[in-house]
Amino acid sequence: MKLSRVIQSLVLISLLLAPSVQAQQEPLQTLRAEREAAEARDQARLSELLEDQAGLEAALEEARSAHAAAQQQREALEARQQAQREHRAELDARQQEQGDDLAAVLATLARHSGEVRDALGQSWAAVGDAALPPRLDDVEVLQREHLETLADSVMALTAETGRVLRFEAPVAGTDGDVSVREVVRLGDFAAFTEEALLRRGADDSTLAVIERTPPEVANTLAAFHAGDARTLALDPTRGQVLSALAQQPSLMERFHQGGAVGYVVVALGAFGLLVALLQYGYLLQVSLAVRRQLRDLSQLHDHNPLGRVLRRFRAIHGEQVPEALEARLDEAVLAEMPRLERGQPLVKLLAAVAPLLGLLGTVTGMIVTFQAITVFGTGDPQLMAGGISQALVTTVLGLITAVPLLFAHTALASRSRHLAGVVEGQASAALAEHLEQRSATSRSFSGSDVRDSAMA
Predict the structure, then answer these.
(1) Which of 124, 113, 121 is nearest to 163 (CA)?
(2) Which of 127, 360, 385, 432 sits at a 20 to 30 Å CA gap from 144?
(3) In 3-state terms, what secondary structure has residue 244?
(4) What are the b/e assignments for 118-132, b being 16+ CB within 10 Å?
């Protein structure tokens, strides 16, 4: 019984351990299969390499050739290094033989070569094809070739000072845009395009148009640039005179220097001149109408003052006394005067106010000047120029405005006075004629009464 139980227990244990043993054998089989596959691949690659023996020998030969070339290059570089060492030793020996005096001369020459290069860097002669001389202060050992190159460069630049060169170069405009333009370089004096002078930009290779070129100079440059003229404006002060001319303000800039007072003066002057022109045009129209009315007084029209006055006079009954007729006639003439004298008081007032406003601008400008002196002192005249310009410009604007207004007022007064005289003359003539006719009628009536009385 005991043996059967032991056998049953062993059977149960074997049944329980069977799945775990099977699970451990599966990875071992996978690893074994992979190892066998890798060995097969290595064996295949080894077989391929053994079969490609010619390729291996060619690669080995190529590697040997590259190694030989590298060794040759190394030997060449070592030989060159040795030659440079020998040359340096020779130069050191020569420098020691030359002594300290010659070394000082060479050092001075090298230092001055840098100064010459810096000075010529601002010259117009260096713009274009010419090259600046080399800088010798960076050379460790000065040789004759360096001195010859320096002399040749200086001579080339000297020759460039007498040439007129035309070439294309990038030029920056006043708006900042850079474009390639045709440039004419006149020796060492100036360079210009077809309409403006040029200056050296921040970068030596870029030229820039100066802020303002005087109009006369610009016209001369344009004619010379186009080949139409052989004359050219030159500035022997290297641009100082042209800069001074370029800083002269234009007419519009001078107008703006007057400030708010200047604007008011000019606005009032323009308004006064407009009123004067309109009124003068009206008076011319009235003059033509009166002239046509004078040709035919039998038909009176209402579109002119003479016709209206005479029509009103004829409408008055003739039985009134002469003084009353004269008063009515004066009333009719005076009723036409406001139209003829319209605008004259305003023009006269503006002509008187304009100089006063100019004087006001002068005072305010001087106040600005004294404020600038108080804050910044008198060291910089440009700080005071704004107030002085305002003072002078407003005075000029006031006078320029007042003078035409005075002429306009005189013209209006003369024209209106002439028309008033014509109307008054014709009215007086009509009154005199009316009184003469009435007197003649009265005398005829008196003669008839005397004759009738005598006959009775």
Answers:
(1) 124
(2) 127
(3) helix
(4) eebeebbbbbbebeb
Do 280 and 413 touch, CB atoms closer than 8 A? no
d(CA 430, CA 325): 11
Judging by DSSP bridges, how do beta strands 207-209 and 164-172 pair with one another?
parallel
Q: Which residues of 431-445 are buried (b: 16+ CB within 10 A; e: fewer)?
A: beebeeeeeeeeeee
The token duo for 19 is 């799945």
Tens of pLDDT along the chain (456 residues) come to 455 565 666 555 555 555 555 555 677 788 888 888 889 988 888 888 777 777 778 888 899 999 999 999 999 999 999 999 998 888 788 777 766 666 777 778 777 777 777 777 777 777 776 777 777 777 666 677 777 887 888 888 888 888 888 888 888 887 778 888 888 888 877 788 887 778 776 666 678 887 777 777 778 878 887 777 777 777 777 667 777 777 777 788 888 888 888 999 999 999 999 999 999 999 999 999 999 888 888 888 888 888 888 888 888 756 677 778 888 888 888 888 898 899 999 999 999 999 999 999 889 888 888 888 888 777 777 777 778 888 888 999 999 999 999 999 999 999 999 999 999 998 888 888 888 877 777 666 555 554 554 454
| Dist CA 118 CA 204 (whole Å) | 12
Cα 206 to chain centroid distance, Å, stands at 19
Cβ pair 399, 358 in contact under 8 A: yes
- What is each CA distance from 30 to 23, 33, 158, 419, in whole angstroms? 12, 5, 92, 133
What is the Cα–Cα distance from 282 to 422, expressed in whole angstroms? 16
Mode of pairing for the β-strands spanning 178-186 and 207-209: unpaired
Q: What does the alpha-carbon distance between residue 398 and residue 390 come to, in Å, rounded to a whole number? A: 12
